[in-house]
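Reviewers of the previous submission asked for a worked example of the structure-prediction workflow described in the proposal, so we include one complete record here. The input consisted solely of the amino acid sequence. No template or homolog information was supplied to the procedure at any stage.
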Amino acid sequence: MTQSVATAVSWPAIWLAQFKKHPLLATSFALILLLMGWSIWQSLLPFFIEAKPGLAPQTQLSQAFFYAVLGGTAGFLATTLGALPALWLKQLSQRMEDGLLGFAAGMMLAASAFSLILPGLAAAELQLGSAMSGSFPVAAAIALGVLLMLGLDTFIPHEHAKTGPCGPGHQQCPRLWLFVFAIAIHNLPEGMAIGVGFAMNDLAVGMPLASAIAIQDIPEGLAVALALIRIGMPTWRAVLIAAATGLLEPIGAVIGVGLSGGGALAYPIGLGAAAGAMLFVVSHEVIPETHRHGHQTTATIGLMVGFILMMVLDTALG
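From that input alone, the workflow returned the following structure tokens.
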């Protein structure tokens, strides 16, 4: 009892110390979270007040939430499907695992470019009247997405399979929860991207994006399950936890559609922010992980295959 109380009391001190260590990042992170909350509230206003000219119809917003939840659920099911082979596949060769993660990275990179940044630029240009003017809010939004992920990475304790625990207070968290937090940081932007893609009920944007994220969730689900098995977790439990991490995608999708449903310019800003978050994850986590074991060529080939497949999907479904 005494130990748990002491641990609980110590968390504010831990985050305060982290704030003092990174004051600029902490302030930016807090402002971004406030901005996200305000944007979500703005998008939810039509549910609480009578519809007026200029506000999105409730039925249109409800449909966007419906599409977002479906897309996020597809990501959850794909993660579960990917985790299931771990029941009999106790391990993959490191080369194969790096190639699969490279494939996932390639799809995320292409989705960021073709399904998020380009539609965001087009939507912003339509709103502001010129390509140059439209590029500024999207560029700023990409930076916001990067800052959001950098804040989560800095202030949330977590553990990566190969680099070990990091983040404030990680010594006080069970190792399982550190893995769960790490996967949450990874999966949340994917769910947000799905939600943003469907925010305007534009299936030409949402469908290829949701399809790409679901496809790349399959090797990710397997990689997570195998990583949990490697740290000594029972196989069935590792598979269940890997599958459960996919639940963050429908949650993220609801957040994403809320962020982008508050106004016309909120849509391209949401697309840019989701792209920035995904680019951060790919550059900061996935690509370094695939290059850690000397299989750079295999990982790069996997990345190119994923990039090309996403480009084809975007053309076929967009």
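Residues 23-317 form one domain. We consider this example representative of the routine output the project will generate in years two and three.
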